[in-house]
Design brief:
The chain has 215 residues and is mainly α. It contains ten helices and no strands. The protein has helices at residues 2-8, 11-17, 21-40, 54-63, 66-79, 83-110, 136-151, 156-175, 181-200, 209-213.
Length: 215
Amino acid sequence: PAGVAAGLLPEEDCMKLNPSFVGIALSSLLAIDLWASKRLGVCAGEGSAWGSARPLMKVIEVSGHGIPWLLGTFYGLCQSDSSAAREVLLNLLFALLLDLVMVAVVKGLVKRPRPTHNKMDMFVTISVDKYSFPSGHATRAALICRFVLRHLVLAVPLRVLVVLWALIVSISRVMLGRHNMTDVLFGLLLGYMLYGVVEHCWLSPATAPTLFALW
C-alpha cells in the first residue's frame, strides 16, 4: 500500500515527495523572476527589441561602476583644501570600499550565475563578476544616493536627479540582461543598509585622528 511504502522511505525522500509550501512558493517566485527578467532584457543584445539603445545603457552602466567612483573620490580627496570636504570624501571612499567588499563576499557565497541572455562585455570585471546576486551597480547606486542626499547641500531638482540616476542605473541592469530583478532589488536593499553602517562608523578627526593626519 502507498502508506506502507511511504513509511519505508527515508525521511529525506519523504520530504522530497511532499515539498513544503515555502519551497513551492520560492520555486515559483524564482521562475517568475527568471521569466520576467528575460522579458525585460530588451537591451541584452544588438538584436534585442531595444538593441539600438544598448550603447546608451552601457554609458549608464559605466556611470555606476565602482572604478570611476573610486578614482574620482580619491582625486577629490587629494585636491581638497577643506577639512569638512576631506571628511565627507574620506567617508565616501570608505563607503565605496565597503560596498565592493560586501558585494564580492555575497556573490562568492551565493554564486548565482548571470542570466543566460547576458552578453559578457562589461566594463572592467573581476572574477566574482561572473556571478549575478546581488547587483553591485544597484547596491552602489542606493548607497551613493543616500550618501549624497545626506551630506551634500543640493537644490531640489538636483536631489531629484540623484534619485532618478540611482533608479535608472538599477533598471538598466535588467534591461542589459546583466541581472535578474531579484538581484537588483536585493542590491538596492543592501546598499540602503550599508549606508547605515557608514553612518554608524563615520570617520572623523576625533574617531580616526591618524587617518586624517595623512591628509
